[in-house]
Amino acid sequence: MRPETESEMAEAVRGAAGPLVVRGGGTRGLGAPAGEVLETGGLSGVTLYEPGALTLVARAGTPLVEIEALLAAEGQRLAFEVPDMRGLLGRQGHSTIGGVMAANASGPRRVQAGAARDFLLGVRFVDGRGTIVKNGGRVMKNVTGYDLVKLLAGSHGTLGVLSEVSLKVLPAPAAQATLVLDGLSDAEAVTAMARALGSPYDVTGAAHWPGRGTFLRIEGLAAQVAYRAGRLQALLGGRIEEQGPWEQIRDVAPFHGQPGDVWRLSVKPSDAPGLVAKAGAIGVLYDWGGGLVWLLVAPGTDLRARLGAFQGHATLIRGTGQPVFQPEPAPVAALTAGLRAEFDPRGIFNAGLMG
Q1: Residues of the chain scoring pLDDT < 70
Q2: Model confidence pLDDT, tens digit, residues 66-122
Q3: Partners of 46 in the beta sheet?
Q4: Residue 326 — φ and ψ, nearest 5°?
Q5: Residue 323 in contact with residue 355, Cβ under 8 Å?
Q6: Which of 103, 170, 222, 330 makes the best surface tag, with the fewest CB within 10 Å?
Q7: Cβ-based neighbours of 332, under 8 Å, separated by 6 or more
Q8: What pLDDT shows up at residue 142?
């Protein structure tokens, strides 16, 4: 099904006789939920863009490339640096803004700018009853009652089908520089990234690519970037490059075309090297100062069992045989079940994806 309007979307949900697989561009969906496909691509187009107010409103099926081109023409951008997952997952097509928000897709700049959900001002969506719901607005302080805006971001289409999103956008920086530190062990890299992120030099990216280097990014006006990069170099050493491999880090390029399962760990940075040592991984990539770790492991690896209990969670991004998302503690699972019962009482949206 491919509704062309929000009303048609609501009607399709109300009339659904069984499970629905919610799909935007099909570029970043996880797992393999069963059911009839409900596409959002028919709900496309930017309905409001006010560069002076740093605000954009778009229908959920709007291709991300269209939004990024529109913003770039005005010297603006989505600050949360959306990852392109097609190479990692072997997908085709174009990501949609609804899919981005449903996945809370956030790249290396999250350590400084925040996650995708932090830029989501308002949403319109269709719940499991086929009711059109609106929450939030077009300014940052326009949320009253339940903050459904934050709830929908990262719900992976399990609570409702987004039909429209309102976003805060930011100016694009005039310049950037990357400090590269060579030859650090994983533990040394995490320590260096923590020092950089704790410095006053406003680091907007901190990643460690074993065998390639540790990368620290600074963005802003040209003179400010030159000064801050120089001060950071005086603190940590290394060499300064104008551009770093940030698109490759953002898109987890080291694992493209490589056989094996891909896991995503969200952990306390200081715990990351120890967990990586236990993982027996084929490939490793650290982002967010070590708070995000990408692991390439042998097919069928039960990584959660191998790592044991730890503070954080492991998500299966590519592979089969394990739950996609970390099983929740009983109290949290009860809250989650209550939310799903409220927003999707029939359990028809992406059934089984998140437990």
Answers
A1: 137-146, 355
A2: 999 999 999 999 999 999 999 999 999 999 999 999 999 999 999 999 999 999 999
A3: 58
A4: -60, 130
A5: yes
A6: 330
A7: none
A8: 44
Name the β-bridge partners of 132.
Answer: 126
User: Inter-axis angle of helices 272-279 and 186-197, to 10 degrees?
Assistant: 150
Task: Report the C-alpha gap between 243 and 213 in whole angstroms.
Answer: 14
**Amino acid (one-letter) located at 56:** L
Nearest to 70 by CA among 97, 91, 107, 43: 97
CB 183 within 8 A of CB 129: no
CA-to-CA distance for 325 and 316, rounded, in angstroms?
7
**What type of residue is 16?**
A
Which pLDDT score is estimated for 192?
A: 98
β-partners of residue 165 are: 58, 123
Hey, what domains does the chain have and what are their CATH numbers? 6-171 (3.30.465.10), 175-250 (3.30.70.2860), 258-318 (3.30.70)
Query: How far are the Cα atoms of 68, 133, 167, 188 from residue 272, in angstroms, in the given order?
Result: 33, 40, 32, 12
pLDDT at residue 138, rounded to an integer: 55
Q: Is 246 left (phi over 0), alpha (psi -120 to 50) or beta?
A: alpha
Give the type of residue at 189: A
Tokens, residue 170: 């930011």
pLDDT at 143: 44
